Amino acid sequence: MPLRVLVGALGLLACVSATAQSNTAEALERQTDEAFRQVFQQPQDLTGWSKYAQLLVQAGNYEGGVAALERLLLDPQAPPEVRVDVGVLYYRMGSYAMAESMLRDAVADARLQGSNRSLAESLLADTLKRNKRNQFSGALTLGVRHQTNPTYQTDDAQVLSAGALVAVANADKPSADQDLAVGVRLNHFYDLESQNSAAIVSSFGAYVVDYSSSSGDPVAGVSKPYDLQMLDLNTGLQFKPLPTQAPGLTLRPYILLANLVTQGRQYLTNQGYGLDLNWQPQEKTLYQFTLDDQRREFANRADIANADQQNGHLYGFVARVSQDLGAGQLIIGEYAMRRNRAERNIHDSDSNEIRVTYSTSYASPLSKGEYWTTAFWIGALERSYSVPNPGVSPTETRKDNEWRIGVNNTVSLAPLWSLVLAAEHSRNQANLPNYRYQNTMLSGTVIRSF
C-alpha cells in the first residue's frame, strides 16, 4: 500500500470526521443554551442544574460542569454521587488536591454504595499518589510471541548479488520462530513545586528477549534471530512555559542513553538529546511532538562488517494527534520522519511513516466493573537509501515500501493486572528482491502495573 494512498484515505476520513463532529457540536451547543435558559429562569430546579452540568461536561467544558454540579452541593442532602462526579472532573482537569477533597467527602458518606463507591475509592487512592512530590510508577511484563519471519528474510526465489540474480539458499529462506520476553519499566516524577508546574520526569527500561532457535553466539552470515538485552534511560525537565496564557502547553527537553547487547556481546550504544512538546487545547484533543538526535556506535564483532562505517547519527521527528470521540472511543494519527547518517553513505537512509489507530473501551463480558480495550491500526512506511550497495546492486538504490495492519485486545485480569493479545501482519514491497518480505506476528503479554 503506497504511503500516498494511505495519506489520501486518512485525509478523506479526517474531513468526514470533522464534518460529523461539527454537526454534533452545533446540536450540543443548542441543547446547552436551552438548558442554561431553564436554570436561569428556575435557579431552584436542581434537576435542571444536573442536566445543564451533564451537557457542559459532554461539550468538554469541565470548569463549567464543576460549577454547575457544585450548585447542587448547596443542598445538605445532595447525594454523594454528586461529589464523586465533581471529583472525577477535578481529576480530569489535573486538580488533584480538589479531587482528593471531594472524593474523601464522598467516601465518608455511608450512602455511597456499589460501583460508585469502588470508583471513588480507586480514584482517591490514585489522587493520593499524584499529590505526592516524589512519585514512582511502572510495569513488569512477561510475553510470548510467534513470528513467521522474524529476521525479515526475502520471500523471493532469487536475490541480487553484485548485480546478478542468484537463487536463495535454503538457510536464508523465511523461517518461523518463537521468543520469550521479560521487561520492566520504571517511571519517576519529582515535582519541583514551582508556578510553571516544573518537574523532573525520568524513565528507565530493561528488556530481555530469548529466541528458541538462537545459537547464542554471534556468527557472520547466519540468518537466525538474535537474543537481545536492552537498557534505556530518558530524563528531562518538564514544565509549562506559559502557565497562564497556554496552560495546556508542556515542554520537556531531555537526554537519552541506550545500550543493546545481542548474543551476549555488546552490539550498539545510543546517546542523545531531544525535546517533547505536548499541547492540549481542549480536554478531548492532544497534540504531541518529539524531536531528537541520537549518536549511534556499533561494536566491532564477527557478524558486523566494518562496524565503524555504520556509526553516525539518527535524527527523528514524531507528530501525534489524539482525539477522544466519546463513549470510550479514541483515534490517533501519527507521522514519523527519520534520517540515518553514517560514516559511509551506503548506510544513509531517509524514511517517512504514517499510522492511524482506533481504539474502543467497553465493559468486560466476563467481569462486572472491569473494562476491555480493543485497538486496530494500519500504517505505511517509505524508506530510501542514499546510494547503491555494490554487494547487492552497483546501479540500483534500495527503496522500501512497507505497510502493516494489526489489532490488540487489552483484558483486565485483576486490579493492576492485565493481558494484552496482539496480531499484526507486515509486508515490504521493495524495489530490490533481497528486501521483499512479509511477517505475521501473534503475541500475548501479561502486565503487572505498580
UniProtKB/TrEMBL annotation:
Gene3D superfamilies: Tetratricopeptide repeat domain (1.25.40.10). Residues 1-20 form the signal peptide. Keywords: Signal. SUPFAM superfamilies: TPR-like. PROSITE patterns: PROKAR_LIPOPROTEIN. This is Tetratricopeptide repeat protein. It comes from Rhodoferax saidenbachensis.
